[in-house]
Amino acid sequence: MVGPCPQKNLEALTQYGLAGLFLASFAAATILPMGSEVVLGVLLANGHDPALSVIVATIGNVLGSVVNYLMGLWGAKFTMEKILRIPEQEFTRATRQFKRFGPPCLLFAWVPVIGDPLTIAAGVLRVNFPLFLILVTMGKGLRYLAIALAFTVW
Question: Each residue of 113-139: pLDDT tens digit?
Answer without folding.
Answer: 788 888 988 998 899 999 999 999 999
